[in-house]
Write a structure and sequence with these properties.
462 residues; alpha/beta; Aldehyde Dehydrogenase, Chain A, domain 1; Aldehyde Dehydrogenase, Chain A, domain 2; seven-stranded mixed sheet; 18 strands; 43% helix
Length: 462
């Protein structure tokens, strides 16, 4: 009861602060974004140490996949927040003149951001930047599965901001459930489908809008005319980054039968060039987040023939970068999101076959296609549905700030990054302004025999 009251008080404190109107001021918002950037820089060493403790991320990977994205998002927002915040004028139908129409973005209010453990800093701070840019208050709930990063973020935010504006709640499922009992104006969740359903159900009780950034089985299609050397390099990099614990990591490979052996040999060679002959000794290869995920992933190794890797060290939560061949489409590994360093490889004989199979599956967060043919690239984009697509590469589709990022269907709802994030945390309020008291009497009762005139009038206002 005490904790519940505490959360109610924290949400109420933020609502009172938001109602002062200060967060809507453009110069104030810019100042807070600059303050966040300075704060991240001051805490950078502590953040990298925490990421190393939680996931054994190297300093390079911590900067490249966590900090750099936040810095880019901050810089992008600071450059464009003024134009994003301006009222946008739209056409007013002739029959409604003299008048003007425009829409203006306004913040939603008090928001809740629930973050995952796999990129625990990046995926907490990136939506926070969007919330701040749009003029909201925010309560952050970092993942308890990355406790060192959660602790550092809590201290950093407390050092930087008044909790009436930005607050952090640490803890596990119990704290998350208690937070979801409160009324927020918007909830942003990144995580798995099971918890996503819980978030959406809780939000529905308050009619709270949500963004759900989920996951799914993101396929890689390698066609017969692909550059197999480059495909091997880019697939291995995207798959084994963060030990495969990436929501948009390649989940499995579908390769044309004619180039399968070439691709397999190329990927084995690239794994060795990236991580050495014994990846457990590499400073650049991470570890599985906890024992439960380790056990789940280790169980997948029996679902195919290991052609590379397969070694595990339970005491380190280490699973080697692994490639599986001879995997059945009905096996467990092909029914669940893998989210780890195990890559099943399946073959196909025609693109028609692959596209037909994909249309019968849940929509993934990402889809990757390797081919030199522009016509086939266009066909894959046109005939598949996914949160995003990358052609002849993996992972990098999240880098352009102007590309909206998010899922569709099973892989989530809502988009963010850049202006898409600003819009997600905003209400685009439409405004119609009548400039003089001119009125069209035909629209008022009694209507009499005015239907034919009304038909003509509606043609004019189109």
């Amino acid at each position: 009861m005490t904790e519940k009251r505490s959360f109610s008080e924290r949400v109420g404190r933020q609502r009172a602060f938001y109602n002062t109107g200060i967060t809507k001021d453009l110069s104030w918002r810019k100042g807070r974004l600059r303050m966040l950037k300075r704060c991240i820089k001051a805490w950078e060493e502590h953040i990298c140490e925490a990421l190393g403790e939680d996931l054994r991320k190297s300093a390079f990977e911590s900067f490249a996949t966590e900090l750099s994205f936040c810095y880019q998002e901050l810089d992008h927002a600071l450059k464009r927040i003024a134009s994003w915040s301006e009222p946008k004028r739209v056409r007013t139908p002739f029959a409604l003149h003299p008048a003007s129409s425009h829409f203006v973005p306004e913040p939603l209010g008090v928001t809740l951001i629930i973050a995952p453990w796999n990129y625990p800093f990046h995926l907490t701070v990136a939506p926070l930047i969007a919330a701040m840019a749009a003029g909201n208050c925010a309560i952050l709930k970092p993942s308890e599965l990355a406790p060192h990063t959660s602790s550092v973020m809590s201290a950093m935010i407390a050092d930087c901001f008044d909790p009436a504006y930005i607050d952090v709640v640490e803890g596990g499922a119990e704290e998350t459930q208690a937070l979801l009992m409160e009324t927020f104006d918007y909830i942003f969740f990144t995580g798995g489908n099971r918890v996503g359903r819980i978030i959406m159900e809780a939000a529905a009780k308050h009619l709270t809008p949500v963004t759900l950034e989920l996951g799914g089985k993101s396929p890689v299609i390698v066609d017969h005319d692909a550059d197999c050397d480059r495909a091997a390099t880019r697939i291995v990099w995207g798959k084994f980054l963060n030990a495969g614990q990436t929501c948009i990591a390649p989940d499995h490979v579908l390769v044309h039968r004619s180039v399968k052996e070439e691709l397999l040999e190329g990927m084995k060679r690239i794994i060795t060039s990236f991580y050495g002959s014994e990846p457990s000794l590499s400073r650049d290869f991470g570890r599985i987040v906890n024992d439960g995920h380790f056990t789940r992933l280790a169980g997948y190794l029996a679902d195919g023939t290991v052609v590379c890797g397969g070694r595990t060290l339970r005491e380190e939560r280490y699973i080697a970068p692994t490639i599986l061949d001879n995997v059945s489409r009905d096996s467990t590994i092909m029914k669940e999101e893998i989210f780890g360093p195990i890559l099943p490889v399946l073959s196909f004989d025609s693109l028609d076959e692959v596209l037909a199979d994909l249309r019968g599956m849940e929509k993934p967060l990402a889809l990757y296609y390797f081919s030199r043919s522009r016509a086939k690239q266009k066909r894959v984009i046109r005939e598949t549905s996914s949160g995003g697509v990358a052609i002849n590469n993996t992972i990098v589709q999240i880098a352009p700030r102007e590309l909206p990022f998010g899922g569709v269907g099973y892989s989530g709802m809502g988009k963010y990054h850049g202006k898409a994030g600003f819009d997600a945390f905003s209400n685009l309020k439409g405004v119609y302004r009548q400039t003089i008291p001119l009125d069209v009497r035909i629209k008022y009762p009694p209507y009499g025999n005015r239907l034919s005139w009304m038909r003509k009038w509606f043609k004019w206002i189109a």
